[in-house]
Amino acid sequence: MSARTPGLPKTLPADLRDRLAGYRWQRVTSGESGASVWRLTDGRPGATLFLKTAADRGADDLSGEADRLRWLAHHLPVPDVVAFVAEADRAWLLMTAVPGRNVAQVLRRSGPAERIAVVDAVAAFLQRLHAVPPGDCPFPAEPTVRLAQARARIDAGLVDPDDFDDERAGWTVERVWSAAQAACPTRIDPVVTHGDFTPENVLWHGGRVSGSIDAGRLGRADRHQDIALFWRGLADHGADLQDRFLAAMAPPTPDRARIDFHLLLDELF
Questions:
Q1: Contact at 8 Å (CB) between 63 and 52?
Q2: Which residue in 120, 139, 223, 252 could disulfide with 191, CB within 3.0 to 4.6 Å?
Q3: Where in the chain do CATH 3.90.1200.10 domains reside?
Q4: pTM over 0.85
Q5: What backbone phi and psi angles, to 5 degrees, belong to 54?
Q6: What pLDDT digit, counting tens, does each position of 37-53 carry?
């Protein structure tokens, strides 16, 4: 199905087909989740939906994302799960839309003063997430858990070294793996983490953070998991803005060694 084609994909489950009849479909090309994503509209304000679908291993990931969204919705604004359908080799996740533009877009179109306000607001939003009691979170994602997941991805051939950050250009997958193992922290600050807290996954609307999306990696982990990814996403806007974000995430002051570890680890996902 091409972008903006009104109508339903032939593989859509019957119950979703009935529910979504009359919607206009637009393929979403941004994002790195590995799932196919569509934006669905029917002309009514506030009625926009998003549909993700994935097969095989990705279907398990979608099931996990649905569980995490349902849990996180009790604590922070995220997409509501409208429906989740699992078939033999494919899964479908239908969600409401969080209003607004992603923070990456907002920062690119903002002046220095507004960028500071956005970063401060994002830091406050992240502090709210990290204040949720980690013992209440049923999803383990500590560094040892994430390393085991990374090794499984390597063994399955799912890590592309061409996607590594510039500072690791030319590295082999095994070199990144060895460096991540060596850098794994011996202590962590356990909190509830988003897991993929990039500027693209935080939404901004009406002068405030309106919510977050793509919560499939949410879980109990070191708070530097989230700090590292958002900090990296600010690089194009200068070191001063990155420093501003780190200062807003204190106390305690973020640990650069643990930030570096999580950036290494993220190369494998």
A1: no
A2: 223
A3: 101-266
A4: yes
A5: -155, 155
A6: 999 999 888 799 999 99
